[in-house]
Design a protein that fits this description.
This protein is an alpha+beta fold and about 475 residues long. Helices cover about 35% and strands about 20% of the residues. The chain is built from nine helices and 17 strands. Strands 1-16-15-17-13-14 form a six-stranded mixed β-sheet. Helix 1 runs antiparallel to helix 9. The protein is rod-shaped, with a radius of gyration of 42 Å.
Length: about 475
């Protein structure tokens, strides 16, 4: 008798459970409340739903917004100013009055013609072509258009372009330097349309002294420097008696000599090519001691210049190290303040049927899109999330609209529409919401309601 009663109660329980399950799709709103995007009666918030299309994306992106900037320390390079000058040319030795016999001709080795290589102390110009025919100077991030500015090659062979960095061009030909700078600008995402020219030639020089109008250092440029050109740059020879004058050339520890009358009578001697470091001395006597004094002074200047360069490099390295430490400290402080929430940030919010509900900071210096937010944080589970109901909820910035919300609706049931997510720009306080699948709502309602029904039926069976 008892077993018949138990069986009857069990059939009754099954009937109740089945009836309840069939009624759930109709009355699931009573059991399980699923979030959705709609305007409720009596609510103070006005909701306007707009379907996302290529045209409405442009409308959504028209809301003004400027991403926050990183501190200037993240755009600074640890460069330093270049060192001081390297001294002046020593005065030429006095002109003696002795009149020796004719001297022999001893020519220096011929200098091979080679392309000019940029060296320390040279000043180069980086310039872009404007819309007109003039050439205007690059400055900073290659945007200034008002003046021409040169860049001096430092002792390490590099030039420092403000706000971009340092690029080494020392020892390169002009064409090689152009290729190096082109790649450098391209790597730093700067428009590489430019021209490069050497404005001042300071790295390779020839010294001219003695019986000349003005003792000078003559730079070696793209055009090979000849003996005649070097003497012309000094203002010409100042000689009373050409018969006893001579031109001496000091090169690599050896003195070469050219009788002045040979120099005048032979055009090929005027075309004699000079090399970097040559010292030309126009003498009116054969007093080698006085010529050696001039060369000794020149060697002392070269040694002083080398020492000054070494000192300048040490100072430069110390200054760069100090600036780099300061930049690193400021960047570290900014990062720590950001992690502690002490720096202002712009955020968007990801909610609904997503992999992880999250608050997401908008990036610095650039715009973020809906696709960046969705797929940069794991996307959404397609088995539970409803791809046809993806919303960007954006409150109105107009106080007179009393918090009205625009729901930008992305229907990604057709996956082609996901391309719109790559164009939909985010704005601060946007709320990205994804609804559940209908079967997900039903299943969750059943999970909540069915245990209650079974427990009730079980207690009835025991009674």
């Amino acid at each position: 008798m008892k077993s018949r009663k138990t069986a009857l109660m069990w059939r009754t329980t099954k009937g109740v459970a089945l009836t309840t399950a069939l009624m759930l799709p109709v009355g699931c709103g009573v059991v399980y409340t699923s979030p959705s995007v709609k305007e409720f009666a009596g609510s103070d918030v006005s909701v306007r739903e707009i379907q996302l299309t290529p045209q409405t994306v442009l409308l959504a992106n028209s809301t003004p917004y400027s991403p926050r900037n990183l501190p200037r320390e993240f755009f600074s390079a640890a460069s330093a100013h270049q060192g001081p000058g390297l001294g002046t040319l020593p005065s030429a030795p006095p002109i003696p009055t002795e009149s020796p016999e004719r001297m022999e001709l001893r020519l220096p080795p011929e200098v091979a013609v080679q392309p000019y290589r940029i060296g320390v102390g040279d000043v180069v110009l980086l310039a872009t072509k404007s819309s007109g025919s003039s050439i205007e100077e690059l400055s900073g991030l290659l945007a200034a258009q008002q003046q021409r500015q040169g860049y001096t090659v430092s002792d390490d062979g590099a030039i420092s372009i403000p706000d971009i960095g340092r690029v080494e061009i020392g020892g390169l030909t002009l064409q090689e330097a152009q290729d190096r700078v082109f790649k450098f600008l391209l790597d730093n995402q700067v428009d590489p349309a430019f021209s490069l020219e050497v404005a001042e030639y300071n790295s390779r020089q020839v010294t001219v002294g003695g019986a000349v109008d003005n003792a000078v250092r003559v730079p070696i440029t793209l055009t090979p420097l000849t003996l005649g050109d070097a003497l012309t740059a000094s203002g010409g020879e100042v000689i009373q008696d050409e018969q006893y004058a001579s031109i001496r050339i000091y090169r690599g520890g050896t003195i070469y000599q050219i009788p002045y009358d040979d120099f005048l009578s032979r055009p090929d001697l005027r075309r004699l090519r000079l090399a970097d470091g040559d010292a030309v001395f126009v003498d009116t006597t054969y007093d080698l001691d006085r010529a050696f004094e001039f060369y000794r002074q020149e060697i002392d200047v070269i040694q002083l210049r080398n020492q000054a360069r070494r000192d300048a490099v040490d100072i430069l390295a110390s200054e760069v190290s100090l600036r780099r430490s300061m930049l690193d400290e400021r960047r570290s402080n900014f990062t720590a303040r950001t992690e502690l929430g002490a720096e202002p940030r712009d955020y968007v919010y990801l909610t609904g049927e997503v992999s992880k509900q999250n608050r997401i900071p908008l990036p610095y210096e650039q715009q973020a899109t809906l696709a960046d937010v969705l797929y940069g944080n794991g996307g959404f589970p397609t088995e539970t999330g409803n791809a046809s109901h993806i919303y960007v909820l954006r409150p109105s910035p107009n106080p007179s609209e009393f918090g009205a919300v625009t729901a930008w609706h992305l229907d990604a049931k057709n996956s082609v529409n996901l391309t719109l997510a790559t164009r939909m720009e985010m704005r601060p306080n946007d709320m990205i919401f994804i609804e559940e699948q209908p079967i997900t709502k039903w299943g969750r309602a059943l999970q909540q309601f069915l245990p209650t029904v079974l427990n009730t039926a079980g207690r009835a069976a025991t009674n």
